[in-house]
Amino acid sequence: MTGKERIALTLKGSQADKTPWVPFAGVHAGKLLGYTALEVSTDLEKLVASLLEVNRLYRPDGQPVMFDLQIEAEVLGCDLVWSDNGPPTVSTHPLAEIQEIPTRIPSPTEGRLPLELEAIRRMKREVGEHTALYAICCGPFTLASHLRGTNLFMDMILDPEYTHALLAYALQVSKKMADYFIDAGIDVVAVVDPLISQISPDHFAEFMTKPFSELFSHIRARKTFSSFFVCGNATRNIEPMCTTAPDSISVDENVNLAQAKQITDRYGIIIGGNIPLTSVMLYGNQQDNMKTVVELIDSVSTKNLIVSPGCDMPYDIPIENTLAIEQAVHETEVVRSMVENYQSTGIVFEGALPDYANLERPLVEVFTLDSATCAACTYMMASANDASRYVGTPIDLVEYKYTIPQNIARCREMGVKQLPSIYINGKLAFSSIIPSRDELVKRIREAIA
Predict the structure, then answer these.
(1) Measured distance CA(407)–CA(423) in Å, rounded
(2) Are residues 362 and 325 in the same domain?
(3) DSSP track, 48-65
(4) Disulfide: which of 70, 111, 203, 287 matches 199 by Cβ 3.0-4.6 Å?
(5) What band does 437 get if pLDDT is binned at 50, 70 and 90?
């Protein structure tokens, strides 16, 4: 059975011969051939060569062509900040100061769309017979946030009519992007919307059910599989996501996969995830990765399951760790015996926590995966920066990125359960939900009193 057949059978709700494996190797693909993230995001030949190396080394059943949530935003006027070891991030928001509804729909000849579409066509010819190809479509909520910035979270409360209108526009963009990908030969359209984890189920029902239901219905009408991809602690929104009827849902390490799968199984929806990106894939060893995968597979029924990283793979993940994961997915029984008695030592915290009881001024700590690469983390950090200007008194503001080993240990020492989170004077204030400016300012001022 080919990997493509394995993915198709699984997404149809049938049991394949093996659990499917989908490495979300976005810019990490470039590392395999020594190319920077910028090079594989802008150079067709380097991108395709890197994707083929992913296919050769990691033996995926399915793989993304690009994992970039900024392609649509770039065309629509957002400025990007580029990195050599991470995907670009949005730095400006065209609608930040004006409440307008755009009408422009990206054409397939604009921005980096021609590069992505040609890469899909090339990969289809090279590996499309045996590998399912995934396209990443920026979800309507995150796209609207790229355009409007953190003001969108205030709009949801103060101007729901405008929010609905902006999401309706973003939906039209997402539909058109899905059409471009499908026409180029893609097998699975993954609608990636990290910010879904940052809102309540009530806000999901009010603002998200309609656009996402329409988007997945549109993809299904094109006879193509879909995936609803969310980052962060989306636990409270797993069932609302199911009601929009995607073929599959993909979650990260913040979500308990076994508990989430009980919900997705009731809806007949496949679930994917959720190998930890940094603590295991980036900083663990081969045994850590093998044992994590075996334990993940053992925690659930393998029917309706796809194993994958929790999100876009960090650029510097050691190649041998991903090779170990592939072996654990496809040769689970062999690997189980290899790691049966293995115990991980973990990362030891070498620093000291602040003396929270005797701070000179309020301390706001933002724990993120990485605000330079994670959309939800970007907007959580932006919210903190924005609020700091309105408190009325100096505060200390620091970000702890989970991509740094000592920050992983700090999270464990602090008892941080979800990313991104905001702590004020050592106490949890917001966990995996982005506060409005007024909410955060109020909590900081309460800490001063």
Answers:
(1) 14
(2) no
(3) HHHHHHHHHHH--SEEES
(4) 203
(5) confident
Distance CA 79, CA 261 (A): 38
Asked if 48 contacts 39 with a C-beta cutoff of 8 angstroms, the reply is no
DSSP letter for 234, please.
-
Half-sphere exposure of 124 (CA within 13 A, CB side): 16
Determine the 3-state secondary structure of 229 from DSSP: strand
Q: What is the pLDDT of residues 355-398, one digit of tens each?
A: 999 999 999 999 998 888 777 888 889 999 999 999 989 999 99
Give the CATH number for residue 402: 3.40.30.10
pLDDT at 448 over 90: no
* Last residue of one domain, picked from the residues 338, 369, 402: 338
Query: Could you tell me if 275 and 400 lie in one domain?
Result: no
Alpha-carbon dihedral angle through residues 47, 122, 13, 208, given to the nearest 10 degrees: 60
Rg, Å, the chain Cα set: 21
H or E element that contains 427: strand 427-431
Tokens encoding 228: 């609803």
Mean pLDDT of 226-245: 96
DSSP H helices, 83-159, are 113-127, 140-148, 151-158
- Which residue segment(s) compose the domain that 83 sits in? 3-338
Question: Of 305, 338, 371, which closes a domain?
Answer: 338
Q: Is residue 313 located within the same domain as residue 371?
A: no
DSSP H or E segment with residue 133? strand 132-138
Enter the tokens of residue 386.
């924005």
| Residue whose entry in the numeric block shows the structure tokens 């100096």 | 394
**What value, to the nearest 5°, has the Cα angle with vertex 333 and ends 228 and 262?**
35
CATH number of the domain bearing residue 33: 3.20.20.210
Q: How far apart are CA 212 and CA 141, in angstroms?
A: 9
Tokens of 73: 């935003």
Q: For the chain, percent helix, then strand, then coil, each to nearest 5?
A: 50, 15, 40
Element counts in the chain: helices (H) and strands (E)? 19, 13
Judge whether 280 and 342 are in contact, CB under 8 Å: no
Are residues 402 and 289 part of one domain?
no
Within this chain, do residues 320 and 367 fall inside the same structural domain, yes or no? no
Q: What span, in angstroms and rounded, lies between the C-alpha atoms of 75 and 91?
A: 14
The tokens for 174 are 């997402």
> Rounded to two decimals, what is the model's pTM?
0.88
Q: Is 422 in contact with 440 (CB distance < 8 Å)?
A: yes
Q: Is residue 401 part of a domain?
A: yes
| Distance of alpha carbon 119 from alpha carbon 135, whole angstroms | 11
Residue 231 three-state SS: coil
CA 229, 69, 147 angle in degrees (round to 5)? Answer: 110
Please tell me whether residues 381 and 330 are part of one structural domain: no
